[in-house]
Amino acid sequence: FYQRSAERSYTVLARDLFSHLAEQEDVHYRKVKEVYEAVAQKHEWPSQETAFRQEKSLRSVFREAIESMGEDVTPLSAELEAMQAAMKLEDRSYSFYRSRDQEATSPAEKAFYQALTAEERVHYLTLMDSYEYLSDPQGWFSKSER
Fold first, then answer.
1. What distance in Å separates the CA atoms of residue 38 and residue 45, rounded to the nearest whole number?
2. Containing domain of residue 36, as a range?
3. Residues 125-143 pLDDT 10s
4. What is the pLDDT of residue 53?
5. Three state DSSP letters for the chain
6. Contact predicate 31/98, CB 8 Å
7. Considering its fold, how many domains does the chain have in total?
C-alpha cells in the first residue's frame, strides 16, 4: 500500500513519507517474522533487541519535506485519501500491538510489542501532521508557530 501510494504521489512530502513508511513497515515485518520463527523453533520468546533503528526518522522526513515545500502546496486529492487510509491502518496496527502488549507473558515479548506500539504511534501522528499540512499549509504553519 505505502509503496504504491509513494509511486502515485505528486508532492515531495507524500512521496517521501509513503516511501519511508514502506521501508519501516518492511522492517517491522522482518522483525515479526524473526520472532515467529524463533518461537516456533524454541517454543519461547527470544530475548533480543527491540528497538527499530532507522537511518532517518519519519519526523525528519516530514520536517525536510515541509521545509522544501513551504506554504504553497497543492496536493492531489488521492494523496489526502491515501493518508486517511494510512492513518486507519496505523491506528489498527497500534491497537493490535497494544492488545498484544497487554497480553504479553514475558518481559521480552512485552518490550517487543511496546516498541512496535511506539513506532505505530509515531507513524499515525506523522501522517496526521502531514494530512493537516497538505490540507491547509498556511493554517498548519500558523498553528505550529504558537
1. 7
2. 2-144
3. 999 999 999 999 888 888 8
4. 66
5. CHHHHHHHCCCHHHHHHHHHHHHHHHHHHHHHHHHHHHHHHHCCCCCCCCCCCCCCCHHHHHHHHHHHHCCCCCCCHHHHHHHHHHHHHHHHHHHHHHHHHHHCCCHHHHHHHHHHHHHHHHHHHHHHHHHHHHHCHHHHHHHHCC
6. no
7. 1
Cα gap 63→84, rounded to integer Å: 20
Nearest alpha carbon to residue 82 among 74, 72, 90: 90
* Residues 6+ positions from 85 with CB-CB distance below 8 Å: 1
pLDDT in tens, 86-128: 999 999 999 999 999 999 998 989 999 999 999 999 999 999 9
Cβ atoms of residues 71 and 22 within 8 Å: no
How far apart CA 38 and CA 15 sit, in angstroms, is 35
Residue of 58, 55, 19, 39 whose CA lies nearest to 105: 39
Q: What is the model's pTM? A: 0.88
Compute the Cα dihedral for 115, 116, 121, 123 and give only its sign: positive
Quote the percentage of the chain above a pLDDT of 70. 94
